[in-house]
C-alpha cells in the first residue's frame, strides 16, 4: 500500500510540475500576444494618421488651386481700378499729379533749446490758399503747442 501511495504521489507531483510549467508558458505566450497586439494597434494608428494627412494634403492642394484661380482672374480689374481711383480721389491724389516732396527742414518738431526757432510741420504742398486746409493746419498747430 505504501508503494502504491508513493507511486500515486510521484505521479501527482509530476502532474503538478508539468501544470506549473504549462502555466508559465501560457503566461509567456499571453505577454507575447499582448506585445503583438500593441504593435498592431500602433501600426493601425500610424496608418490612420497617414490617411488623415493624405486627405488633408489633398484638401490643402485643392484650396491652393482655388486661391490661385481666384488670384489669376483678371475680370475684376476694372472694378479694382475704380475702387483705387475712388480712394485716391477721397484723399486728394490723382494719377496725373506728382506726389509733392517732403519738406527738407529737418524733423519739423519743437527744439528743446531756447536759442533755436520753433519748427512746426507744414503741409506737403507749401503755401496753399485753401481756407479749410489753413484752418485745419492752424488747429493742428494749436494742439501741438
Report on the architecture of this protein:
By secondary structure, the chain is an all-alpha fold. It has 3 helices and no strands. The protein has helices spanning 2-72, 77-91, 131-144. The radius of gyration is 45 Å and the shape is rod-shaped.
Question: Which ranges are low-confidence, i.e. pLDDT below 50, for 5 or more consecutive residues?
Answer: 113-117
The proportion of strand residues reads under 5%
Shape summary: rod-shaped
Subunit arrangement of the protein:
single chain
End-to-end CA span: 127 Å
Mean pLDDT: 80
Q: Quickly give the structural class.
A: mainly alpha
Task: Give the count of helical stretches.
Answer: 3
How many strands, which pairing sense, and closed or not: the largest β-sheet? none
Fraction of helical residues = 55-70%
User: Order of SSEs, N→C?
Assistant: HHH
Radius of gyration: 45 Å
Give the strand tally.
Answer: 0
Amino acid at each position: 500500500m505504501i508503494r502504491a501511495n508513493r507511486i500515486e504521489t510521484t505521479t501527482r507531483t509530476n502532474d503538478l510540475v508539468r501544470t506549473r510549467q504549462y502555466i508559465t508558458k501560457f503566461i509567456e505566450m499571453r505577454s507575447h500576444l499582448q506585445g503583438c497586439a500593441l504593435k498592431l494597434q500602433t501600426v493601425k494608428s500610424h496608418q490612420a494618421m497617414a490617411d488623415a494627412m493624405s486627405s488633408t494634403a489633398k484638401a490643402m492642394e485643392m484650396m491652393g488651386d482655388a486661391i490661385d484661380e481666384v488670384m489669376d482672374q483678371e475680370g475684376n480689374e476694372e472694378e479694382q481700378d475704380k475702387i483705387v481711383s475712388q480712394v485716391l480721389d477721397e484723399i486728394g491724389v490723382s494719377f496725373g499729379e506728382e506726389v509733392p516732396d517732403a519738406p527738407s527742414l529737418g524733423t519739423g518738431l519743437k527744439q528743446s533749446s531756447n536759442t533755436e526757432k520753433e519748427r512746426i510741420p507744414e503741409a506737403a504742398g507749401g503755401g496753399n490758399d485753401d481756407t479749410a486746409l489753413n484752418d485745419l493746419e492752424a488747429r493742428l498747430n494749436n494742439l501741438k503747442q
